[in-house]
Design goal:
The protein is an alpha+beta fold and 191 residues long. It contains two helices and ten strands.
Length: 191
């Protein structure tokens, strides 16, 4: 057995005794919370992928989304919920070198000159900051209930807007230029 035990903390408890009018203090332990690992299964590699990508540009973007869900439930009583997320993500762009075909690379007969036609860069990954993707505000009406659906919708909207912002900022063009410079520098160093 493996486990973690949190020892009890003693807190004073004050009771007033009506007959004597004297206050008595009793010490009550808080319950012990024990966390026990029941079973640890070894990690299993389920897939292995060769990645022929060249990441050449990244940008961090933040986006705030606030959504409200509201519906009348019964006799005009509203079931409402509001959630706000201040999300952050890193958008990474680059080129897929696996997309290079034989005809995309030409070498002169004397081997002194090479022409490489790289594929256009694309967004490769959007990596959300999971901590920032948690609600900073999540409220409900008196008869409302919290739902995961509204939180998930807000997260989806944050990530969609971050992607759209990255595209509008033309990060793929910058990533393409960076990829060209990186490959040119590599070829020059190779001689």
């Amino acid at each position: 057995k493996t486990g973690v035990s949190i020892s009890p903390i003693l807190e004073p408890l004050t009771d007033t005794l009506p007959a004597s009018g004297v206050a008595a203090t009793a010490v009550q332990p808080t319950p012990t919370i024990a966390i026990r690992i029941i079973r640890q299964v070894p990690s299993v590699i389920t897939a292995v992928h060769n990645l022929g990508i060249l990441e050449t540009y990244s940008v961090d973007i933040t986006k705030q989304v606030e959504l409200e869900r509201s519906q009348n439930v019964l006799f005009g009583i509203a079931d409402a919920e509001v959630v706000r997320i201040n999300g952050k993500a890193t958008v990474i762009a680059g080129v897929s070198l696996d997309a290079l075909e034989k005809e995309n690379v030409q070498v002169s007969v004397d081997g002194r000159k090479a022409i490489v036609r790289l594929p256009y860069a694309r967004i490769l990954h959007i990596v959300p900051d999971e901590q920032s993707m948690q609600p900073v505000s999540h409220g409900r009406s008196l008869f409302g209930r919290y739902t995961d659906a509204l939180v998930n919708k807000a997260r989806e909207m944050v990530l969609a807007d971050i992607r759209r912002t990255a595209i509008e900022r033309d990060i793929c063009s910058i990533a393409s230029r960076n990829a060209e410079a990186t490959i040119k520098n590599l070829l020059l160093k190779l001689g």
